[in-house]
Amino acid sequence: MHAASHTGSLPAHRRGAQLTRRLRAGALLSATIAAGVLLVAPADAEPFPGLGSGSAGSAQDPAPQQPNFAPPSINIADGEVVGVAQPIIINFKEPVADQAAAEKFIKVTSSKNAPGHFYWRGDKQVRWRPNDFWPDNTDVQVEAGGTRSSFKIGDAFVSTADDNTKTITITRNGEVVKTMPTSMGKTKHETPNGTYIVGEQLRKMIMDSSTYGVPTTDPEGYKLEVEYATRISNSGIFVHAAPWSVGQQGNSNVSHGCLNVSTENAKWFMENSRKGDPVIIENTKGGSIGTSDGLAGDWN
Fold this sequence. Notes:
With 300 residues, this protein is mostly beta strands. Helices cover 11% and strands 34% of the residues. The strands form 5 sheets. Strands 13-12-11-19-14 form a 5-stranded mixed sheet. The longest helix has 14 residues, at 12-25. It is globular, with a radius of gyration of 31 Å.
């Protein structure tokens, strides 16, 4: 004996059971659930765009891709709070040949919308920054091939040094909180224009002209201790206390490129600024800061 291939003569309950089996097998229709909505299409229709048809872990699934680099380091520590101009810097242990492939394994997510882009410095470092400054008070997470860092963007603490007025105007989340007189780079030492970034902060340091090729015995040479020095460029431009130039601050430029302010103002600036805060210098005769100048290069 053999079973009939049609259902016309089957009892009703057997026809119902066979229909159920055919539905489960997908002979009559396919069903896919996406984002909580049940989508139904005829069995012979094309698959839903962007939705897979295999089951998780099936033999047909391709092996998951692996990063083409060892776990790298990230410049912002887990739990750290940084300023709105802070770029994300990822350093790899070995040169990365396929940079486009590496970028696919780097994920930057933020609690506030912050579109941005990658840019490479050689084959062992990639940077990412938002197209504009980060939104203030934003939570950010970076995942890069096995390394993860979750950090926070703090208040928008933005300083603007204007050579026309020889003042530094400082805002916090758009509100002016302080204005201080300054003296910038004198003739032949003009401070370049551009967007700088706050880096290391030193209670005291020795500034020595010989470190960039000018002997201390030269008429333009110097070696002196300064207080409350906040670095804003790798080339050696600081906001620092300069009590010897208080008479010129707000009136004329007498520094070798740094932003000279009073001891009181330098202390306030150090105590209120943090890594990644932007310092915008404008209207000088010093041209523009170079893109290769570390802290300042990311925004210029």
